[in-house]
Design a protein that fits this description.
mainly alpha, 21 helices, elongated, 382 residues, single chain, 2% strand, two-stranded antiparallel sheet, disordered N terminus, 55% helix, 4 domains
Length: 382
């Protein structure tokens, strides 16, 4: 019986050991499961579908300390149709501070603060474009305390990013968010009308004159002096101008007169020094440029042109003052024949006069040399 009791006691110990081992294994497994679950809860899924489970609800919003409501809704169709959605850019690639739920507290003061704290994430993928904005007029204004100055998402949006130049008419619409008055002037101009009504690819938009990301200050002397080159990019292009019967001599004729020659001299020697000589937009308008066939154009009639000239020449009171301007045309037998034939006369008489003078000087020099050296070789007389 003793051996039976020992055997029974051994079995119980073995059973206890097995139960203990099973308990330990179960505890470890449960601990691992709890750890994995907690980690998953802390980090959360990183796919867009998980984010959109909440953010696809139109009523999802929070109230900022300023009292402004901030919608947290993201339209799935709009996002997936955007450039980022097409390229499979995930939410957490931009929202790098979001790793799970609950999200970290939103430390925003107002709606503008949301934009200003988040737009810098664009640098992660668009470093070159981002860096080019740092010296732009927008960033200068922002650094100077203007919180309304445009940043990346003001122009491109955050979740509905599409091609900003498709169609091209979208460009002035984008700029109009801040520059509505200027945009209205542009839309009413000959350039804007051709863009909006005809989708004309030849006319300039805002970014063609001001740049895209590295926009400079258009009120500086340097910009003013360089503005003829901006206009010349299109107006000296024979391929473009030939479509509309516009002369490509506008820059050459401008630089040939006193106004243009002085502006060019300043641009080369003193690019930061202002000049009171007119550039293109002083006579044709800045954003409200009209066709010269439009009665509202600043240069369409002698009366309008006289008023334009009087801005710099207040003593100009008669049409004879403006009739001296040849409207960017080179003189020809058909246009300004008097100027043409006078120029032709000088083109002939000056070379003939100088040529005759050179012949006279050369013959005189030859005669003097001949007299000095040619006669010395004659034999002496007997």
């Amino acid at each position: 019986m003793i051996w039976l009791r020992k055997w029974s006691s051994g079995c119980r110990l073995h059973l206890y050991a097995r139960l203990l081992a099973s308990g330990i294994a179960l505890g470890v497994a449960l601990g691992v499961f709890i750890g994995v679950f907690a980690t998953a809860q802390a980090q959360g899924p990183t796919d867009d579908a998980s984010c959109l489970q909440c953010h696809s609800k139109p009523d999802l919003a929070l109230t900022l300390p300023s009292g402004e409501p901030l919608s947290l809704y993201v339209d799935p169709e709009v996002y997936h149709g955007s450039i980022h959605g097409t390229l499979k850019v995930t939410c957490v690639q931009c929202h790098t501070d979001i790793q799970g739920y609950p999200h970290p507290p939103a430390n925003y003061i107002d709606r503008r603060d949301v934009t200003l704290q988040n737009y810098k994430t664009c640098e992660g993928c668009h470093a070159e474009n981002y860096r080019s904005t740092l010296d732009s007029m927008h960033q200068v204004a922002l650094a100077g305390g203007n919180r309304s100055a445009a940043v990346c998402t003001d122009c491109h949006t955050a979740h509905a990013v599409t091609d900003p130049a498709a169609p091209r008419s979208r460009i002035p619409q984008t700029c109009a968010q801040c520059h509505s008055t200027i945009s209205d002037d542009y839309i009413a101009s000959v350039h804007g009308q051709a863009l909006v009504n005809d989708d004309n690819p030849d006319v300039p938009t805002c970014v063609d004159c001001h740049g895209v990301h590295s926009m400079g200050n258009p009120t500086t002397a340097a910009f003013r002096l360089s503005s003829p080159e901006i206009c010349a990019k299109c107006h000296t292009d024979p391929t473009i101008m030939s479509k509309y019967g516009i002369s490509t001599n506008v820059l050459d004729t401008y630089l040939a007169d006193f106004h243009g020659a002085t502006v060019e001299l300043f641009a080369r020697q003193h690019p930061d020094q202002a000049t009171n000589k007119p550039v293109c937009y002083d006579c044709h308008g800045v954003h409200n440029i009209k066709s010269i066939a439009d009665p509202a154009s600043m240069v369409s009639t002698q009366e309008n042109l006289l008023q334009t000239c009087r801005r710099c020449h207040p003593d100009a009171t008669t049409a004879s003052f403006t009739s001296a301007w040849m409207s960017h045309y080179e003189a020809s037998p058909d246009k300004y024949p008097l100027v043409y034939y006078i120029n032709l006369f000088y083109w002939i008489i000056i070379p003939l006069t100088i040529g005759a003078l050179l012949i006279f000087i050369a013959s005189d020099v030859f005669q003097r040399i001949w007299r000095r050296f040619g006669t010395s070789k004659k034999p002496p007389e007997a």
